[in-house]
Amino acid sequence: MDLKLKIWRQNGPDDKGKFVDYEIKNISTDASFLEMLDILNNELIEKGEEPVAFDHDCREGICGMCSLYINGHPHGPDAATTTCQLHMRRFKDGDTIVVEPWRAKPFPIVKDLIVDRSAFDEIIQAGGYISVNTGGVPDANTIPINKGKADLAMDAAACIGCGACVAACKNASAMLFVSAKVSQFALLPQGRIEAKERVKKMVAKMDELGFGNCTNTYACEAECPKEISVTNIARMNREFFAAKVSS
Amino acid sequence: MKKLDSKIPEGPLAQKWKNYKDHQNLVNPANKRKIDIIVVGTGLAGASAAASLGELGFNVKVFCIQDSPRRAHSIAAQGGINAAKNYPNDGDSVYRLFYDTIKGGDYRSREANVYRLAEVSNNIIDQCVAQGVPFAREYGGLLTNRSFGGALVSRTFYARGQTGQQLLLGAYGALSKEIKRGHVVMYTRREMMDLVMINGRARGIITRNLVTGELERHAAHAVLLASGGYGNVYFLSTNAMNSNGSAAWKAYKRGAFFANPSFVQIHPTCIPVHGDYQSKLTLMSESLRNDGRIWVPKKKEDAEKIRKGELKPTQIPEEDRDYYLERRYPAFGNLVPRDVASRAAKERCDAGYGVGPTGLAVYLDFADAIKRLGRDVIEARYGNLFQMYEKITDDNPYETPMMIYPAIHYTMGGLWVDYELMSTIPGLFVAGEANFSDHGANRLGASALMQGLSDGYFVLPYTMQNYLADQITVPRFKTNLPEFDEVEKDVKEHIAKLKAVNGKEPVDYFHRKLGRIMWDKVGMARNEKGLKEAIEEIRELRKDFWKNVKVPGDVNGLNVELEKALRVADFLELGELMAIDALHRNESCGGHFREEYQTPEGEAKRDDEHYMYVAAWEFKGDDKEPELHKEPLKYENIEVKQRNYKTA
User: Quick check: is B254 in a domain?
Assistant: First the structure.
């Protein structure tokens, strides 16, 4: 198929940036979206132009490195799909595809389609873990865990930290990301010990870094490639209030 | 010839690790603060080591090429992690895990290392549960297990099809905790460009800041490489796009020996290649072989019709299907080790029974399992894998069998290390897939996660301390020393040279060509003629690369093509060493299958008399033949025999 592409090009954080039009021909419907960009880039290189910079790594939908706002959707039009798992059969011959980076103040643009998501690492460093050191822990089966709760914890833990939730949110809220980690640990007995401190520290860091608040539009859940549920946000809010009240 | 000292501790096998720990040197807490350690890579091995060393009080600097340490390729591991817990009461033990691993590796790994691995495997599960890793559980609340290839017990712990992700996020949590405490400093989007040595010891690295293009100097008392494997030398592999062998390769060129470079794992269950533009291959977890049955048509004419699209697999009656693994290996069936399953698939396809448009695919069928257990159970076990398969292929595996074919997945070879995981360069330690230590000529499924975390959580915190004990009086190194000047100058010149080529072809052009040579001639089946050709062809391609590669853009800034070019330049050298190693080893073992050396049934035929050793190669200069060093392997606790998966 032949396609028209409108791709955001920006040389660095201080550059103004603009859309640049490209045309690309003979793309197989079996190619992935990123393979289509690979082909474009190799054509650009052969023409002596600079290729489009974009983040990607595992191309299996799990590392969370790929991003891209495609035709108005983080990770493109398919539900529960990362950009790297999006395939060209989803598009039609002659389509125009608009490709932009994540847009949110806490995710500044590095170059073209690459943004800096280190704010997510900072939130985790604020307390998104269980403080155990290596060694000296009890046998893994010492504390039985209700299967339903363990499954819910796993649902929340499936977050890949890609930032689509922030990109989708009109407030650039990181609540879905933060609540997924808070929930995972709040649901497990190992995580309960520090639950109050954790939620307070992570929320404070999230606010400090300039992420917005949740106004319940659920765009984050709709666009999340791992279908992380907004019920996690509700759980985080409960955890947060309980922590505040009891402190 | 330098003698390789593996430093295996005295005593009976089961006592060796305990003996080591009882007698090793320690560093007191006040002195730990004076010691700096560099860790390259934040996968399971790197992140767990960095966190654990930070907890002990060392100053740790960690480097990763991604934008966050959470994205290292360990995250993509699907199926699970082995441990000898014996929770299912099915007869497992430390010895049995050790035995299966040695046998699975076709008797080409070191007994003492593998035993230690099996010994600490249980601690890993305990540690991960304490970190909040949500492993799969039974209704009673206890942990559950499944089976993987090469074992007759169920010893694999898992978190749906995302075990690697959950374990890595556990280690990333531990790492984040130490970053917060200030014991670990994290450097993201940094690539190690070279190793700096002072008076024969590893004392630092030069990194390139991938955003600014700046070269940076970092000094330390010891350096740990946990930079992963080199499967991307084949261009198409299940590795992440940015996985590369450059850190290990630079260490090799500075004097670290490279062991068994030709031992690569070809994973039997990957989604088949579908087009020339393809950038990578996707693995379908080995856990699928618990319930999926592998088959091809019994009749060639059926296979032909399927290839032409005239017949569907569901139309082939049961009696016309050849479940060739169950037929050839009744005891292990669909759960034979990866090398055996891969070769069997190739054998059927080469004989004309392959399916799919290219004929290079076999079926992995869940119809029986769905009938037996119901769709819900299968969905709960493998839902995310089925979904991923459907996204890539546009086929629904609940209704029609999956198509799979072997693909490059893992490299058992790597930098040579002794029992302490130290390379032949004093102070340079190597962990995880980057070292060669535990998997011999073939790795069993669910053992890579085990090894990465074993190295990082439970081995290096001891062995690095033993090395550092006499370094406490060595003051911190300044990075303006002439040793740093020289190495940085080398790096700068290398980059400038690459940029100056200014040819016509993009990096991928050369990488694809290299991949083709490697897959055809240094892949699943190798022979003397092909390997000799491969060596010549790689040399030619390397020359062509240095004449015709085009690296656009500025080297002083974010430049993805430059990153790729630097890595491919190294792959073009590493590929040759792999072919040299494969050519020298006149036997078949594990994943290394030399067509000249096979049993009448087509199984790998080892030559224990001449090749029961680790081949460790020493760099002798560009365009010079590397020198071979041998570490003989001794088996005192296991009877060495031909691997047999036909009978238990």
Answer: no
- pLDDT at position B175, please? 98
Is B129 part of a structural domain of the chain? Answer: no
The full DSSP string for B407-474 is EEEEES-EE---TTSB-SSTTEEE-GGGB--S-TTSPPTT-HHHHHHIIIIIIHHHHHHHHHGGGTTS
Q: If you search the block for the tokens 């985790």, which residue do you land on? A: A124
The answer to the question of residue B123 being in a domain is: no
The answer on B398 and B286 residing in a single domain is yes
CATH homologous superfamily, domain A118-246:
Alpha-helical ferredoxin (1.10.1060.10)
Q: Of the listed B338, B343, B567, B594, which one is catalytic?
A: B338
The CATH architecture annotation of domain A3-110 reads: Roll (3.10)
Q: Could you tell me how many CB contacts below 8 A there are between chain A and chain B?
A: 218
Residue B295, in any domain of the structure: yes
pLDDT at B291: 94
Rounded Cα distance between A18 and A6, Å, is 10
What's phi and psi for A243, nearest 5 deg?
A: -65, -40
Averaged confidence pLDDT in chain B: 96
Per DSSP (E only), the strands in B250-304 are 258-259, 264-270, 293-297
Residues B487 and B391 both lie in one domain = no
Q: Please choose, from the candidates B495, B274, B466, B559, the residue with its C-alpha nearest in 3D space to the C-alpha of residue B389.
A: B274
Interchain contact B376–A (C-beta under 8 A): no
CB contact under 8 A, B127 and A141: no
Q: Is A146 in Cβ contact with B87 (below 8 Å)?
A: no
For chain A, the structural domain boundaries read 3-110, 118-246
Low-confidence ranges of chain A (pLDDT < 50): none
Last residue of a domain, one of B407, B424, B445: B407
List, in order, residues 6 or more apart from B629 with CB less than 8 Å away: B1, B2, B3, B4, B257, B615, B616, B617, B618
Active site residue B289: no
ipTM of the complex in this document: 0.98
Within this chain, do residues B401 and B487 fall inside the same structural domain, yes or no?
A: no
Q: What's the pLDDT at B239?
A: 97
Element (DSSP H or E) covering residue A166: helix A164-168
Last residue of a domain, one of B581, B597, B612: B612
For residue B210, the chain A residue with the least C-alpha distance is: A110
- B518-576 pLDDT per residue, tens: 999 999 999 999 999 999 999 999 999 999 999 999 999 999 999 999 999 999 999 99
The CATH number of the domain holding residue B378 is: 3.90.700.10
Side by side, the strands of the sheet bearing B184-187 are: B184-187, B59-63, B36-40, B222-225, B428-430
Domain limits at B340?
268-407
- pLDDT less than 50: residues of chain B: none
Model pLDDT, residue B81 = 97
* Residue B489 and residue B605 in one domain: yes
- Taking only residues 317 to 356 of chain B, the set having a beta carbon closer than 8 angstroms to any beta carbon of chain A reads none
Q: What is the dihedral of CA A127, A133, A136, A141, to 10 degrees?
A: 40
Q: Is B121 an interface residue toward A (CB < 8 Å)?
A: no
Residue type, A107: F
Q: Is B271 on the interface with A (CB under 8 A)?
A: no
Best CA proximity match to B111, nearest among B641, B648, B640: B640
In terms of domains, do B590 and B488 share one?
A: yes
The CA distance from A158 to A150, in Å, is: 12
B137 vs A150: CB contact, 8 Å cut-off? Answer: yes
Domain CATH code at residue B520: 1.20.58.100
What is the count of structural domains for chain B? 2
pLDDT digits (tens, 9 = 90+) for A204-227: 999 999 999 999 999 999 999 999
Instruction: Examine the domain organization and report whether B396 and B515 are in the same domain.
Output: no
User: Do B401 and B515 belong together in one domain?
Assistant: no
Residues 6+ apart with CB under 8 A from B393: B271, B274, B403
Interface probe for B, chosen from A28, A62, A116 (most Cβ of B below 10 Å), is A62
